Amino acid sequence: MHVLLATSELNPYSKTGGLADMVAALAKGLAGPAGRGVLRISVVSPLYRGVLGSHSGIEPTPWRPAIRIGDSLVEGRFHRKALRPNLTHWFVEQPGFYDRAGLYAEAQRDYADNAARFLFLSRAALVLARHLPDPPRVVHAHDWQTGLVPLLARHEQLQGGWTQPPRMVFTIHNLAFQGSFPLSSWDLTGLPADWLHIESARHHDRVNFLKAGLTQAQAITTVSPTYAREILTAEHGCGLEGLLLKRYNDLGGILNGVDTEEWNPATDPDLPARFHAGDLSGKAVCKAAVQREMGLPQDTAVPLLANISRLTDQKGSELIASTVRALLKAGEVFQFVQLGSGERALENAFRDLARRFPDRVAARIGFHAALSHRIEAGADFYLMPSRFEPCGLNQLYSLRYGAVPVVRATGGLQDSVVDPRENAALATGIKFTPYTEAALRHAVLKALALWKDPAWLGHLRHNGMTADFSWDRQAAEYVALYESVCRE
Ligand code: ADP
After folding, report:
1. Is there a single domain that holds both residue 464 and residue 397?
2. Could you tell me if the CB of 21 is within 6 A of ligand 1?
3. Cβ-based neighbours of 133, under 8 Å, separated by 6 or more
4. Residues 218 and 302 in one domain
5. Is residue 77 part of a domain?
6. Distance of CA 389 from the midpoint of ligand 1 (Å)
7. pLDDT tens track for 350-380
8. By alpha-carbon position, which residue is closest to atom 4 of ligand 1?
9. What is the value of pTM for the model shown?
10. Full domain range(s) for residue 76
């Protein structure tokens, strides 16, 4: 079976968050053991600025589709890279749309033509799906940027002579981002006006790309079982809970895995020393090195806490800043490292914290993939107090790298971390529930107590480092889903 994954981000070429990691790792997992080499996997994503310059093996093809956007035909060009005989990355080049400084935004402002940019991506995915010599049986679209894919395919089937379009699977990585545009943007799609209604893409007098995917795909998944339940509630449903409840039978949650080639402390080329569950001496070297790199005193006796994230309300960044401040003011002894970028006020809050406690707090504002590996390797504890968290990847990376996660019990955090109160023998981290500074403070104090109990800390760390979050198991669940939508 051939499956085409359509995505706006793909690690290592383009990334703002977990979507990029997930799609790249899923594709590898599907092409490898989970698909037992019999699945053929193609992935399509935009050719953003800088991709050709920093990655080898991407070849231009003569295929230059002309894609209708509103009244114009916009020409693109496909490039491709064959990673394995059964795994191909396709890139769609359209300099006017994708040769820009950001993926979705610049200077914190979304590009004004994002509807056209991602309509173009969705149509390009369908050009591949329809005209590849070995057409896919399933297209698996991800998030709002490719939400129109199932709707556009249906239109081509009913009115464009596409007799056997592929089955459609749609994955929600974050329901809070919906691709909501003014009604006038419907004209860009070229679809008839009567195709825009509340059972397709219309939502509160807007065009909603995500809703198009949710209403039209044969199967819907999200990235953890707990988030799949949470999004059926008003608290987490972002206004789409009613629709999701209607599609309950077609909705499931599959926890993301980890790309164990990229995230392996025993082989990671970004680390100054390597380590594994049986020998943590390299982790001490990594801790001292990251303390030095971040300008903190090199002292392996002080517990090192960390967070790497988009700085936003979703991730609990404000809670982290206020809790770290309160605990340090109260004289608790630890260091804290923040890597991230996002809302200006939060960036400033962490800069300010680092100025106030120069021996205790270091903040690096920006996006640095290699540094994120070194921080995971050096940290003793990883804070993730998300307000909501569809899956979350950093807690999984932290488990593998021996940074005990301190997480809020929501979404994928609930599904991937085991608190001693749930199961002492299998415990891997510390969980708390209320989204309050008091609850996070209490959880961090537990972590600091754990630090003073090396045997117990070693137990949690060992459990986390040896837990299996490889993609083999999860990819097999997607294979079963693809097979089931093809049988329907
Ligand atoms: P989300 O997709 O909601 O942002 P995830 O936890 O699913 O959150 O994935 C975030 C990914 O982005 C992780 O791989 C994380 O390490 C990475 N990341 C986030 N911010 C940064 C940053 N400033 N520098 C490097 N990597 C980052």
Report:
1. yes
2. yes
3. none
4. no
5. yes
6. 12
7. 999 999 999 999 999 999 999 999 999 999 9
8. 17
9. 0.95
10. 2-257+472-487
